[in-house]
Design brief:
Elements lengths: L1 E2 L2 E2 L4 E8 L2 E6 L5 E3 L25 H7 L48 E7 L2 E6 L8 E5 L2 E8 L4 E6 L1 E2 L2 E2 L2 E5 L4 E4 L5 E3 L4 E3 L11 E6 H7 L4 E2 L6
Length: 236
């Protein structure tokens, strides 16, 4: 856990509390509480402090291995866990439109509650991109004043977003390869990989800036970002 200017013990845990049906974490240094869907502490010595987000990739294990075949895996046994991860404990929860406990506000019914979305926020602006609607082409868009590009594919079950600003100018991207995912900017012909790295062309070696974005259930994203915009396909 990183707050600009300081580092907190990264060993934390689950508090057992929920906020809008989402887990609330705690850090072992101050016991401050941190909602899973947000980056700021809501209780404790660090209340109001904001964490620095790192880029997160969520995709099926098989797809990740194709990208990174030498990935190391932490053994569950080495952590002393007795949980049987081969057993699915949630029954129909992930397909049902119900949530277990009341939300602070009304449930946003523009989509099925458990639709997985890539949510992006920029300042006070927020937008959600349903993974099922991402069918391959990249999405050139803007959140508030920040031009962004979404690279994702519902069938391959991944989505990630980057800033489109490079060297002070705004780039426009097109898909150049489905998997391993790659995109090309029309302004220079530079090709970029899923990690936002320029791998060929005039800007080779450059890195796209990350966005405040992650994948979550629609009901949770909408609860934490009431009135969020919802991408409905197409560009912009």
């Amino acid at each position: 856990m990183v707050i600009p200017g300081q580092v907190i013990d990264c060993v934390g845990g689950v508090s057992g509390l929920l906020c809008d049906n989402n887990l609330v974490m705690f850090d072992r240094t101050t016991s401050s509480l941190w909602p899973q869907m947000d980056f700021n502490s809501i209780r404790g010595d660090l209340m109001g402090e904001v964490l620095e987000q790192i880029q997160v990739y969520e995709m099926p294990w098989g797809q990740w291995l194709k990208l990174h075949p030498d990935t190391g895996v932490v053994s569950i046994a080495s952590l002393g866990s007795t949980i049987d991860y081969d057993r699915y404990p949630y029954d129909t929860y992930f397909t049902s439109s119900r949530v277990m406990f009341p939300l602070r506000g009304p449930l946003d019914t523009r989509m099925h509650a458990k639709t997985r979305v890539l949510g992006i926020r920029e300042g006070s602006e927020a937008k959600a991109y349903p993974l099922t609607d991402l069918t391959g082409p990249v999405v050139n868009d803007s959140i508030g004043n920040e031009p962004v590009v979404v690279l994702g594919h519902g069938g391959l079950d991944y989505a990630v977003a980057w800033s489109r600003v490079v060297d002070g100018g705004v780039r426009t991207f097109e898909l150049s390869q489905t998997f391993e995912p790659r995109m090309r900017d029309l302004e220079t012909g530079t090709e970029w990989d899923i990690h936002g790295r320029a791998i060929s062309g005039p800007d080779i070696g450059s890195q796209l800036a990350s966005t405040e974005s992650y994948i979550g259930f629609w009901f949770a994203w909408a609860a934490y970002h009431p009135g969020t915009d919802l991408w409905s396909g197409g560009e912009g």
